[in-house]
Design a protein that fits this description.
Length: 217
């Protein structure tokens, strides 16, 4: 029994390490020094649904999922700013969407613009963006029941999410966090983002800057 528990613990630990990956640019402090406002873009989603009856257009569903992550991130950061002071502000996503629309930019063509171009159009210092690969509709929720058969066969894996922060002036990647999505990740988009960012917050660079500034005062 003890050996089985240890084995399961090791497998869980290995799976957790494989599911998370955080990168931070060695130039983060230098490039983000004057950052005041960040814009959150809708995530670029790729859907390969296990079951699709064809009643809804996949492209429309991808757009819906992408905006759902954008909204969930805005909600997460809004809640965190109420609890603890953040050194950066986040542009209202409705304003972001309106400004992009005024410049002829929508979900279908946003990927042809560079980070520098988008930052200039939105008048922000940095961009939060990302990708979402799914085989289910995360916004509608995921199955929560757990079985060891699904776990070892890979049927509990629903995709992968990647969140990144880029500098507006240079377009350079400053920070990136990737995580596999499964039954333990979260029951829906909001839950996923909340749990994911709570795991990453210790490595979230702006959070670190806030703590450093507090120590220097």
């Amino acid at each position: 029994m003890i050996r089985t528990s240890i084995l399961l613990l090791l497998l869980s630990s290995l799976a957790l390490n494989a599911q998370k990956n955080i990168y931070e640019s060695p130039r983060f402090d230098e490039l983000s020094n004057d950052h005041e406002t960040l814009a959150i873009l809708p995530f670029l989603a790729n859907l390969e649904l296990r079951q699709n009856d064809g009643t809804e257009n996949v492209k429309a569903l991808e757009e819906k999922e992408g905006y759902a992550v954008q909204s969930a991130l805005e909600t997460y950061f809004s809640k965190r700013k109420k609890k603890k002071k953040f050194p950066v502000a986040f542009q209202n996503t409705m304003d972001t969407k309106a400004i992009l629309a005024q410049n002829g930019i929508n979900y279908q063509n946003i990927d042809v613009y560079t980070i520098k171009q988008l930052s200039e159009i939105l008048n922000v210092d940095g961009i939060i963006s990302g990708t979402l690969d799914l085989n289910i509709l995360l916004s509608k929720g995921v199955p929560t029941e757990f079985s060891f058969t699904d776990y070892f066969s890979g049927n509990s894996d629903y995709g992968r999410i990647g969140v990144k922060i880029s500098d507006g002036d240079t377009g350079k990647l400053l920070w990136k966090y990737e995580k596999q999505i499964n039954k333990k990740t979260g029951k829906n988009t909001t839950d996923l983002i909340d749990k994911m960012m709570k795991l990453a917050i210790r490595k979230f660079p702006y959070e670190r800057e806030r703590k450093r500034d507090r120590k220097n005062k």
